């Protein structure tokens, strides 16, 4: 079970104690942070063992089969070790919630994503709050589960797309953008608290504001309209790294690139292409499927030559032929993306793709996965070798194995991209941004020497 570390004082012995298990993607992590912030505000103490907890909250993920199994295992472990368990998140809504109820009929409560009120009501019923304003004042930025120097900031909930392999809209609902002043105020608090990198997330970040009327909102005496460009302009004033995730290749994204070229936003885009073959994209019901993505990439790189693009792909989707896969490999070689992840298609309960004909055998999925990753490894290594001898900025994450200091460049998002292994004549601390000369490159990582000054 995971729980944030808390400072301890003898006066806490009477505080009600909550165990917390957080599973899933960064969007679920932000939900966990919000619940933990509310718990702290009401005087609850989080603990790292089932035995010490008065009640346990499990924030679940249910996107793919392996996530469902992990969530069920976590709930089962909490029930066996503690017995008083509250379930929330993606397993708490739709058909999956019935699965959970049948398997664990003695749960205290089960609720879906962002249903924070239900979670707190269940906590209150299990163990009443004992708020004491004299211990552990709530930090202004709330409780964070990430290291102190970076934080995820969620700008919207839900999604309006109906991709055939995905059930996110049925779990999280339609797009609901947060007001721009609310997002910028949260971002400013995080920056003032010492956060050096803001990772902007949503189900579809580039659709931000599409559900809101174009009405000016004020922040720092400037009028902003609720849409992505204006949000990026506001975030770019805070003096921290701003990294965009889950950006679909819509034409209006072109307008963000000048901010990247000017250093206001990191020259980094996480774009979920998923495939390249037109027939597969059509079967997937992907948004922007008709876009000429190679031309879009060319436009972006012309505006911002330093741009890093990462993406993820699905191989073995129902109906994917060898010709479709060959098309994807040719596209990948032409696109020369910097970072790539790949998944073998796995059916998701409730997804429309389950009814599609042309199931691809598992051994073919594995073979295509290996071929795609081999192609991308060569591309990645070639692109990283081009950086040898260059000076780059690196955000220090902390010590790695055998005492080597590990950091990340602009091209590296935490946990999903590569690392920069640093040699330095002086001590380095997490959250510090240093300049370093690249000495070596592997298929995914860099080795660099920190420069003086």
From TrEMBL:
CDD domains referenced in this protein's UniProt entry, alphabetically: Radical_SAM
Binding-site residues for [4Fe-4S] cluster 1, renumbered to this chain: 25, 61, 90
Cellular component GO terms, alphabetical: cytosol; ribosome
Subcellular location: Cytoplasm
Keywords tagged on the record: 4Fe-4S, Cytoplasm, Iron, Iron-sulfur, Metal-binding, Ribonucleoprotein, Ribosomal protein, S-adenosyl-L-methionine, Transferase
Note describing how the cofactor binds: Binds 2 [4Fe-4S] clusters. One cluster is coordinated with 3 cysteines and an exchangeable S-adenosyl-L-methionine.
Highest taxon in the source lineage: Bacteria
Enzyme class, UniProt record, top EC level: transferase
Radical SAM core domain boundaries: 145-382
Cofactors that this protein relies on: [4Fe-4S] cluster
Predominant location: cytoplasm
Protein name: Ribosomal protein uS12 methylthiotransferase RimO
Taxonomic source organism: Fontimonas thermophila
